[in-house]
Amino acid sequence: KLILAEKAMDQQDYKNARRLAAEAEVDARVAETRADAARNATNLAQVQDSIRALQEEINRRSPR
After folding, report:
1. How much is the pTM?
2. What's the CA dihedral at 9, 13, 17, 18 to 10 degrees?
3. What is the 3-state secondary structure (H, E, C) of 12-55?
């Protein structure tokens, strides 16, 4: 969309260029949010694994 916006600018189609540039920005923000979500999911899984391991260790060491 950014390339299309640049082409529209070259053709002096400013209204279309503005719309396409805005769409490109939104698309970039969505991609960034998805990437952040994927990283956060990975980090959450690692923390959950650590908590699970700690709980297992506590259960092994605690007297019953």
Report:
1. 0.66
2. 120
3. CCHHHHHHHHHHHHHHHHHHHHHHHHHHHHHHHHHHHHHHHHHH
**Residue 21 · residue 5 · CB < 8 Å:** yes
Q: What would the pLDDT profile of 18-52 be if each residue is shown by its tens digit?
A: 999 999 999 999 999 999 999 999 999 999 999 99
Torsion of CA 54, 55, 60, 64, to 10 degrees: 150
Instruction: Return the structure tokens found at 55.
Output: 């709980």
List phi, psi (to 5°) of 63.
-70, 150
